[in-house]
Design a protein that fits this description.
alpha+beta
Amino acid sequence: MSADRNGFRQEVLACLGKDKGVVALQDCIAGHFPDLEVYREEDDLVIKHGGRFLIVRRASADRFRTEVMVEAPSTNEVDSGGGVERDVDGMFDEIAAFSEA
């Protein structure tokens, strides 16, 4: 796991400043968390670790909606407004915890 929260934050904000969707963060997340598999599913990111999946969707300019799935990646929960809304630091914390589980 990367402990570089400030570097992650700056890279995320730089990517988001370009008015791109959350998929613009794919390389950023993969670079800071090389032990995770990161790929896109339409406009969402799917982060895989072992048999678990973390879905990340951009909720607004600097907010993200995340949901952990145990068996198979599905965006159904975030499609219906579920999951947890987080800022950049909260997303970093969730990904870090996810990578350690």
